[in-house]
Amino acid sequence: MQIDLTGHLALVTGGSGQLGRVMCRTLAGCGADIAVHYHQNAASAEKVVAEARALGVRAVSVQGDITQQADVQAMRQQIEAELGSPDILVNNAVIQYDWTSVLTQPLADYEGQFRSSVLHNVLMAQVFVPAMIQHGWGRVIGINTECAMQNLPTQSAYVAGKRGMDGVLRVLAREVGEHQITVNQVAPGWMISEDKPDDAAADTYRAGVPLRRRGCDQDIANLVAYLASDLANFISGQYISVSGGNVMPTI
Predict the structure, then answer these.
(1) Partners of 187 in the beta sheet?
(2) Mind telling me which Pfam families this protein's record contains (predicted)?
(3) How many Cα atoms occupy the beta-carbon half-sphere of 144 within 13 Å?
(4) Given strand 33-38, what is the order of strands in its sheet?
């Protein structure tokens, strides 16, 4: 059994970042053409594009602020002109900020998380899903977080945004399912990436994970590729934790 995404086009927001670039490589390795979104790091995006093309697929980079409707619409126009209409969306980009307590977290951070978690997913759906409806097939995959279940101190702005994202995507799954479009969420734990290797600072975290280790960026990309494929064509509306059991969604 293999994951074959030949003939599909994936758009990965934040595709030049730590998790995003591995998703792009993995999807390209499965045969999907790739649109690599970036906000500021053009050089990193072009490197990912080159890596995807080396795997034999078509790839372009596309710049934009995913919290602005005009930017997302411009992204669609560029991608359609160069590659066609994406039928796989991976909504991965998110605004970074300093975490502190509810009592001291700047209000701008809550607004930023709302825009990059909730409005990001709304805009991507409004701009790109209509073409999926016309084609009768599509995948929307939102990158959530284990934090949405942990609710630990200093996580409030992040959790607020990601829980809002969860609501939007669950409703979207019900609204577009009849068109054979699945909508799911991948929720990473504290992952190891190329830029952020494991270290002793994570000892306490690892001790609380049933597998007693941290996962890596490839673990996230593997699930994204699976959910993008026809192997997952009857899975929708799900929040799937990739955390080694650190958080366990319940029934």
Answers:
(1) 241
(2) adh_short_C2
(3) 31
(4) 59-63, 33-38, 9-12, 88-91, 138-143, 181-188, 239-242
d(CA 28, CA 45): 14
Strand, helix or coil for residue 182:
strand
User: Catalytic residues, which ones?
Assistant: 158
Q: How far is CA 67 from CA 62, 73, 188, in A?
A: 15, 11, 22
Is this structure's pTM higher than 0.70? yes
Residues 66-123: tens digit of each pLDDT: 999 999 999 999 999 999 999 999 999 999 999 999 999 999 999 999 999 999 999 9
For the domain covering 9-242, report its CATH number.
3.40.50.720
**Could you tell me the CA-to-CA distances from 82 to 231, 241, 246 in Å, in that order?**
28, 34, 42
Ranges of each domain in the chain: 9-242
pLDDT in tens, 205-249: 999 999 999 999 999 999 999 999 999 999 999 999 999 999 999
Is residue 138 within 8 Å of 14, Cβ to Cβ? no
Token output for 78: 């560029």
